[in-house]
Amino acid sequence: MRFAVLTISDKGYAHQREDASGQEIIRLVQAAGYELAHYGILPDEQVHISAELRRLCDGRVAELVLTTGGTGFAKRDVTPEATLAVVERLCPGIPEAMRAMSMAV
């Protein structure tokens, strides 16, 4: 299975911060035997995030697209909204599991 990783970060996009989370996701998913098809860093701009998600999915670049960053409560943190604009079916159990694991730390 091919996967893509998108890091959403103004500072990462401007080369002001290292993308540690995106690199760690790549390391973990490759260790599980998956093939990296695309890696990118985007600024916190909803239209660009949605467009890139559509390109990766509709263009069949990857079967799995993982995003990191852009999920806080600042005005520019729009990854959830950008994702909701393009999904066809919600899988609420996945974010619930992520929150549950996060609470354990």
General description of the model:
The chain has a three-stranded parallel β-sheet with strand order 2-1-3, sandwiched between helices. With 105 residues, the protein is an alpha/beta fold. It is 44% helix and 19% strand. It has helices spanning 10-13, 20-31, 46-58, 79-84, 93-103, and strands at 2-8, 35-42, 64-68. The termini are far apart.
Summed up, what is this model?
The protein is α/β, with parallel strands linked by helices and 105 residues long. It has helices spanning 10-13, 20-31, 46-58, 79-84, 93-103; strands spanning 2-8, 35-42, 64-68.
Task: Pick out its properties.
105 residues, alpha/beta, three-stranded parallel sheet, globular
Q: What are the segments in which pLDDT stays under 50 over at least 5 consecutive residues?
A: none
Number of strands: 3
Elements, N to C (H/E): EHHEHEHH
The number of helical runs is 5
Summarize model confidence as the mean pLDDT.
Answer: 94
The geometry reads as: globular
CA-to-CA gap between the ends? Answer: 30 Å
What share of residues is helical?
Answer: 40-55%
- Work out the strand percent: 15-25%
Question: Rg, please?
Answer: 14 Å
Biggest sheet strand order reads 2-1-3
| Largest pleated sheet | 3 strands, parallel
Instruction: Return the structural class.
Output: alpha/beta
